[in-house]
């Protein structure tokens, strides 16, 4: 079972962002520990050397971005609908956009995640998703990036069925 | 008796002289030629935007139509130049908007450009035609909207690999319906989707459109629509090149490509689905330029394509091409001039890709016109380099990156000195060289002795002592740009070759062993140089003379020290140096 330690481990940085070696972060300044004497005698490990190998950020990002975007189509089911749909999560930049997209697709009203009440109060439907561990979660609790990496499929539930999900 | 030609005649003669070098020579003949020449110079190229000031340029050349500027040092491409370093286009654009109302072309490379500057461009120059922003940053799609909306005669908008703040795709819709002059549009670097219908209409009403480079967000299904609207295209950059398996998409795509009788160059190919590759089969025999460097497809698929392209002159590809793919290149592409092989996975030790030095050797054997090489690989040998040098003495640009720093000849475990030595010895016209692998001072001895035409040299993790740098500075007569990182070069070589620095455009040294005191001395001795010390960690004020500087950028200038530096950069102030003992 994948316990997804990475998503919950304590570290500096936004949740949901992958750990990248120092050289992959754009605009990073060179490490303060690197001074000329050390660089002469001890070859630094590849992952610690800024700007080496000399591949432009533009190119690095383009190839990286590609890897992250493979397989982001997820199935979407809506309670009562005769068949399922598929959405490409890549296309959306935020929960708001995703909700709009789903609303258009299923001709329903979901509304927006209410931050104060942490739910979709007053709506007929509640959007939920199955995460990597197989649990059904309410859409909107975690940051968008984290959601993107953990969402395996979506289900739009009828509000009255979504009782145990903090609505 | 002095006989002189009337001004109009001289001006007419000068109009045939286009190279900057020649124009500069003309202006030195005598005062009257200087005067005539400066009034009729139409194009300016400034290789370092801090070498001269905008007002000096406009004062001397009042009737310019085209300006090209470069800002940050080349190593900025690899994150070695910190944020906020400089390269601001604003003062240049302000001055040009004042002095050159008839300006038609602006080309900027590695500069920081703001939306305000773009707006100023769009409203200041009534006949503005060409905007090229290469590896620039600092602007958003709002600035692009201003350009689209206001430049009535825009011919070229090229955003080559710039970092654009992508607020929305709406900017493209700002091109008015009356704009029909577009010849070249490159939006490949943009992330968000532009309105496809606006794009389609723009393409449809631009009969002179020859170059179109789309961004990834343009889906493959829509590509054929665009191609049908622009069958006169000469160069195309696709968007995403995959679409699930849909035979209707494939057939309309191949039909559309069949209609493009002028197509000679292809690029893009993001997210490639190999089953769509041969949709452009009909174009292959005419292709002179193919950029597959974003296409993560495997060697057999690449080989299939390449073997259909006998007229290829330029090929950019990932190391997925492998030695077998390059063998196919050597067999099929006899007209090849430029080869670039990029690493698909630069940060892992073993890429599981069979690309070795052999691939490059094959191409050097099979492609007699090969002049320019950029090659990333994981192993190299002196014997391979010697073979390449012997095969291709016509090389002009040779950039080799053996991915592991200080990697020796994998066969003999010796340094690669002799191999690179053979390159500079045989390739007498070599203008650009990038070194890698295990290298001692010896390689620099060879370079200093043989590389007389070398203009740009990039060095990393190489050499043993100052002698190495001294060989280069004293031997390479044509050297213009020198960039060095992580080498044990200190003060001695610099101080022994002080005069050389004024004959070069710039010198970059980072993580070397140059002392602060040497920088001060250089600055004092050479008033025509800006000696910039970059130190992000310590305080520049409290440095001892013996402290090594983190990064150093020295360039010749007639504009004096610049005033737009962030706190961690200092130009060594000559006056202060004199008064502080």
TrEMBL record, chain A:
Q: What keywords is this UniProt entry annotated with? A: Auxin signaling pathway, Nucleus, Repressor, Transcription, Transcription regulation
- One Gene Ontology cellular component: nucleus
InterPro entries, alphabetized: AUX/IAA_dom, AUX_IAA, PB1-like
The yes or no answer to whether the keyword Transcription is present is yes
Domain PB1: start-end pairs: 71-161
Could you tell me which Pfam families the record lists for this protein?
AUX_IAA (PF02309)
Q: Which SUPFAM superfamilies match?
A: CAD & PB1 domains
Which Gene Ontology terms describe the biological processes this protein takes part in? auxin-activated signaling pathway; regulation of DNA-templated transcription
In this chain, the stretch annotated as Disordered covers 14-47
* Compartments (UniProt record): Nucleus
**Would I find RNA-binding among this entry's keywords?**
no
What is the protein's known function? Aux/IAA proteins are short-lived transcriptional factors that function as repressors of early auxin response genes at low auxin concentrations.
Describe the protein's quaternary organization and the partners it interacts with: Homodimers and heterodimers.
Family of the protein in this entry? Belongs to the Aux/IAA family.
Q: What is this protein called?
A: Auxin-responsive protein
């Amino acid at each position: 079972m994948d316990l997804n330690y990475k998503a919950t481990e304590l570290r500096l940085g936004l949740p949901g962002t992958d750990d990248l070696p120092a050289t992959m972060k754009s605009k990073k300044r060179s490490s303060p520990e690197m001074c000329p004497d050390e660089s002469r005698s001890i070859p630094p490990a590849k992952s610690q050397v800024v700007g080496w190998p000399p591949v432009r950020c533009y190119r690095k990002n383009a190839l990286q971005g590609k890897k992250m975007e493979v397989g982001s189509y997820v199935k979407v089911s809506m309670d009562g609908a005769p068949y399922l749909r598929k959405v490409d999560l890549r296309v959306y930049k935020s929960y708001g956009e995703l909700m709009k997209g789903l609303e258009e697709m299923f001709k329903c009203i979901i509304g927006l995640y209410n931050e104060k009440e942490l739910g979709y109060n007053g709506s007929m439907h509640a959007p939920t998703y199955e995460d990597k561990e197989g649990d059904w979660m309410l859409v909107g609790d975690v940051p968008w990036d984290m959601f993107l990496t953990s969402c395996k499929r979506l289900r739009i539930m009828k509000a009255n069925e979504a009782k145990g999900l903090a609505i | 008796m002095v006989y002189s030609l009337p001004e109009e005649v001289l001006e007419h003669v000068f109009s045939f002289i286009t190279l900057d070098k020649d124009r500069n020579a003309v202006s030195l003949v005598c005062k009257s030629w200087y005067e005539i020449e400066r009034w009729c110079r139409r194009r300016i190229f400034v290789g370092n935007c801090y070498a001269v000031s905008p007002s000096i340029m406009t004062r001397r050349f009042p009737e310019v139509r085209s300006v090209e500027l470069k800002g940050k040092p080349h190593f900025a491409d690899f994150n070695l130049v910190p944020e906020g370093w400089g390269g601001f286009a604003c003062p240049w654009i302000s001055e040009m908007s004042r002095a050159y109302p008839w300006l038609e072309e602006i080309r900027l490379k590695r500069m920081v450009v703001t939306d305000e500057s773009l707006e100023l461009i769009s409203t200041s120059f009534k006949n503005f035609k060409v905007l090229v922003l290469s590896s620039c940053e600092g602007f958003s799609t709002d600035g692009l909207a201003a350009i689209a909306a206001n430049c009535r005669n825009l011919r070229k908008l090229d955003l080559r690999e710039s970092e654009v703040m992508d607020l929305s795709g709406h900017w493209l819709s700002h091109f008015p319906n009356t704009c029909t002059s577009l010849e070249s549009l490159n939006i490949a670097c943009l992330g968000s989707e532009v309105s496809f219908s606006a794009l389609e209409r723009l393409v449809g009403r631009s009969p002179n459109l020859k170059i179109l480079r789309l961004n990834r967000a343009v889906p493959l299904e829509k590509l054929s629509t665009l191609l049908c609207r622009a069958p006169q295209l000469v160069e195309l950059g696709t968007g995403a090149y995959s679409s699930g398996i849909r035979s209707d998409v494939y057939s309309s795509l191949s039909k559309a490509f069949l209609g493009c009788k002028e197509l000679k160059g292809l690029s893009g190919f993001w997210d490639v689905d190999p089953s769509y590759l041969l949709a452009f089969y009909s174009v292959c025999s005419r292709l002179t330029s193919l950029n597959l460097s974003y296409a993560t497809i495997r060697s057999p698929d690449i080989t299939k394509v390449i073997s259909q392209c006998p007229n290829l002159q330029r090929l950019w590809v990932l190391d997925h091409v492998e030695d077998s793919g390059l063998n196919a290149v050597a067999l099929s592409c006899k007209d090849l001039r430029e080869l670039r092989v990029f690493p698909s996975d630069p940060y892992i030790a073993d890429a599981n890709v069979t690309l070795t030095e052999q691939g490059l050797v094959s191409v050097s054997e099979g492609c007699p016109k090969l002049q320019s090489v950029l090659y990333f690989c994981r192993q190299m040998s002196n014997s391979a380099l010697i073979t390449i040098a012997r095969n291709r003495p016509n090389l002009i640009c040779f950039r080799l990156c053996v991915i592991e720093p200080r990697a020796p000849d994998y066969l003999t475990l010796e340094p690669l000195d002799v191999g690179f030595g053979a390159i500079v010895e045989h390739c007498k016209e070599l203008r650009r060289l990038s070194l890698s692998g295990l290298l001692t001072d010896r390689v620099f001895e060879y370079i200093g002795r043989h590389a007389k035409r070398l203009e740009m040299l990039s060095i990393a993790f190489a050499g043993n002592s100052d002698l190495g740098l001294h060989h280069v500075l004293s031997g390479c007569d044509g050297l213009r740009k020198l960039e060095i990182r992580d080498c044990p070069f200190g003060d001695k070589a610099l101080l022994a070759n002080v005069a050389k620095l004024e004959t070069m455009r710039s010198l970059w040294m980072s993580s070397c062993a140059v002392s602060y005191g040497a920088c001060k001395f250089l600055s004092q001795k050479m008033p025509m140089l800006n000696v910039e010390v970059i130190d992000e960690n310590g305080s520049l004020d409290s440095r001892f003379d013996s402290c090594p500087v983190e990064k150093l950028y020295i360039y010749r200038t007639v504009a004096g020290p610049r005033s737009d530096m962030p706190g961690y950069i200092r130009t060594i102030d000559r006056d202060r140096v004199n008064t502080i003992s």
